[in-house]
Amino acid sequence: MQSLYGVGRDYAITYDELEPYYYEAELEMGVMGPNGEEIVPSAPRQHPWPMTSMPYGPGDRKFTEVVKKLGYDNTPVPQARNSRPYDGRPQCCGNNNCMPICPIGAMYHGAYSVWKAEALGAKVIANAVVYSIETDASNRVVAMNYYDPDKRSFRVTAKTFVISGNGIETPKLLLLAANDRNPNGIANSSDQVGRNMMDHPGIGMSFQSAEPIWSGGGSVQMSSITNYRDGPFRADYSAIQIGYNNTAQNSRAGMKALSMGLVGRKLDEEIRRRTAHGVDMYVNHETLAHPDNRLVLSKTHRDALGIPHPEVTYDVGEYVRKSAKLSREHLKRIAEALGGTEIEMTSFFTPNNHITGGTIMGLDPKDSVVDGWLRTHDHANLFLATGAAMAAAGTVNSTLTMAALSLRAGDAILRDLKHV
Ligand code: SF4
């Protein structure tokens, strides 16, 4: 972002260095994507996606048709969902329950990889809350200490340590574990631990379309408008993802129909009508890394183990606010094209909780926490396999980049172990 557009921060690696790991992550998780279709803008790939996207349901078909006339390209989003039986898990059957959870296991989640690791000999200790990190005279990590739920303390030693808590817990632990040699926190000689936190905040809109659109056939998210994912405008304001939410509208329709005081057949008809015509959309915005968007340890609030809560200060910034003005115009235009009535748009930003940046990567140890292998600059045998290492947020979910970076860290760890 900094080299190309003069804003935000640069990664410590190039796209070409990461691309093989993206593919490895796609194979591991089982990602389907629009093989053979043109995506704007298109990231260069050496291999096709492991699986090809499933066909759209009626809602995505209609939406794509309508926005095409306005000049938008609505294309299938790659996602970790099986379009055919893959890795011992079944094909998606389109029940539209992907959030919060896929009941048949067609969608990937992290436990599948944990189970594979256990089968290879890994030991998982549940309910273990790490609270301190010991370092030696050369600042290598020698042990971590954790509490069980009864606050009994246990010590774990190793040659190599990997912290892969999320974007909140990873920086929190590093700050909490400050010791005599590292008084500002572990891996924090740069004072960047807990800073530069990012998400991709959204604006939502719902309305009733003039014609039935029948959201809800297939998975909850199948497509998105990709035209504004990149371009010279990013020097000025954030890139966006515009999305049609294919969530079945019956729940929202039912609540609205009940609030109208309807009963009997009239209630039934109104629920059907609203379910058929309901549309839900969103725009997500990339944010920039800013050191003031920051996590610190609370001085006043502690959890049941006596560990300070994290406290986060976060402002999406002018870069996002400027972009959001245009996002609202896009949304209005699309609602109008669908003959929208009862248009409701959120006046605030909704978080997506795909947290990046709190242990940011960089080439310079003075202003970053990890290098391009996710190795901490301060401790040669400590890796942070987390989205917090990402140097930019992008407009979409961070999972694939987190997984790709973590697999790359795995290669560095293997190389280290061969040299020990
Ligand atoms: S639609 Fe979603 S919940 Fe249903 S099978 Fe497919 S991935 Fe799972």
Descriptive overview:
This protein is of the alpha+beta class. Helix content is 27%, strand content 18%. The protein is built from nine helices and 15 strands. The strands form five sheets. It has a six-stranded antiparallel sheet with strand order 3-9-10-11-8-14. A three-stranded antiparallel sheet has the order 4-5-6. Strands 1-2 form a two-stranded parallel sheet. Helix 2 packs across helix 9 and helix 6 crosses helix 7. The longest helix is centred in the C-terminal third of the chain and has 21 residues, at 399-419. The chain is globular and about 75 Å long. The two termini are 37 Å apart. The chain binds iron/sulfur cluster. Residues 81, 92-98, 102, 104, 106-107, 219 line the site of iron/sulfur cluster (SF4).
Comma- or semicolon-separated keywords:
alpha+beta; six-stranded antiparallel β-sheet; 15 strands; globular; binds iron/sulfur cluster
Q: Ends: how far apart?
A: 37 Å
Low-confidence stretches: none
Shape estimate:
globular
Report the sheet with the most strands, covering strand number, pairing sense and barrel closure.
6 strands, antiparallel
Number of strands: 15
Please give the count of helices. Answer: 9
Gyration radius, rounded: 23 Å
What ligand species are in this complex? iron/sulfur cluster
Mean pLDDT: 96
Oligomerization: single chain
The secondary-structure element order is HHEEHEHEEEEHEEEHHEEEHEEH
Broad structural category: alpha+beta
Strand content: 15-25%
Name the helicity range. 25-40%
Strand order of the largest sheet: 3-9-10-11-8-14
